[in-house]
Amino acid sequence: MKREVKIGNKLVGDGHPAYILAEIGINHNGSLDITKRMIDAAVHAGVDAVKFQKRTPDVSTPVEQQKQMRETPWGYITYLEYRHKVEFGETGYREIDRYCKLKGIPWFASIWDEQAVDFLEKFDLPAYKIPSASLTDNNLLQYVRKTGRPVILSTGMSTMEQVRVAVKVIGTENLIFTHCTSTYPCEPEELNLRMIQTLRNEFPCPVGYSGHEVGLVPSAVAVALGACLVERHLTIDRAMWGSDQAASVEPAGFERLVKYIRVSEVSLGDGIKRVYDSEIPSLKKLRRVQ
C-alpha cells in the first residue's frame, strides 16, 4: 500500500523525502518584521514550507478564558485582547503571501475555527492543518474537508478513540497524521515516538511528527521510525516572550535539524544486505578465510 499525499508540488509519504515544516505559529508576536526574519531563516535552513496559526479570537477563545488578565508585551490585558494582538488580518497575510512567494517558499496555516477557513481560502493554500486542540471539533473537520485541500491532523492530547472518531468524520483521503504530545516543552519520556508506527499500522495514511521537545535528536529518530513529515516550531530567540518559544528551535538549530533528518534518511538504506565496493579493500586486507 502506497501512502502519499501531494502538498503543493511535493509528494509526502512512503518513498519520499520527509517534508520539513517550520512552524512560525504565533512566535512572531504580531510583528511582520520578525515574521520575515523567520521566513528568511526557514528558507536558509532548507525547509519545505512555513506554517502559521489562524484564529478568529472571539470565536476560538474559550469564553471562560476571554476576560482572564495576563502580563504581555502590550501591558496587563485580557487574554482575548492578547489573542487579537498576535493575530494578523488580511493586510498582514497579504504581505506574508507576497514575501513567501518572493522567497520561493510555500506557506499554510493551522485553522482553529470555520471563519479562519473562510479567511484563508482567499490565498489558495496547498494544505490546512487541524491543531490537536481541534481534533474533536467535528463541525470544523467537516468544514475544512469541503475545501478539497489536503489536511494534516495533529493528534496531541487525544485518545485513540478520539482519533478514530475524527477519522470517521474527515475520512482518510488526502489526510496526513502527525503524532504529537501537546506539552511545551515536552520531556523525552512523554514523546512516545513508537506511536508513529501505531498510527501507521491502524490507518492507511502517511504519518508525520510534530515535536515540542528541547533538542533535535528525537525529530531525526521520528523519521527513522517512519515519519514522512516533521514539524518543529521556529523562533528567532528562545528567550523571546511567548508560550511556544521554549519549545522552539532557533535558526542555527533548524539548519542542523534539516541536516540530521536528511542524513538519517540516507542512512536508512533499503534493508538488503550487500557488500559495498568501498568494503572490498578491507575485505581483501582483513578476511583470513574466504
Describe this structure in words.
The structure is a single chain. The protein is of the alpha/beta class and 290 residues long. It has one domain (4-286): Aldolase class I (TIM Barrel, Alpha-Beta Barrel). It is 38% helix and 20% strand. The chain has helices at residues 32-45, 57-60, 63-66, 79-85, 90-103, 114-120, 138-145, 160-170, 195-202, 217-224, 251-268, 280-286; strands spanning 4-7, 10-13, 19-25, 49-54, 69-72, 75-78, 107-111, 128-130, 151-154, 175-180, 207-211, 229-233. It has an eight-stranded parallel β-barrel, surrounded by five helices. A two-stranded antiparallel ribbon has the order 1-2. α9 links the parallel β10 (175-180) and β11. α1 (32-45) packs parallel to α5, α1 packs parallel to α11 and α10 runs parallel beside α11 (251-268). The longest helix has 18 residues, at 251-268. The protein is globular and about 80 Å long. The two termini are 41 Å apart. The mean pLDDT is 96.
Task: List the helices and strands in order.
Answer: EEEHEHHEEHHEHEHEHEHEHEHH
Shape: globular
CATH C-level: Alpha Beta
| Secondary-structure-derived class | alpha/beta
Could you list the spans in which at least 5 consecutive residues all have pLDDT below 50? none
Helix share bin: 25-40%
Average pLDDT: 96
Characterize the largest beta sheet: strand count, sense, and whether it forms a barrel. 8 strands, parallel, barrel
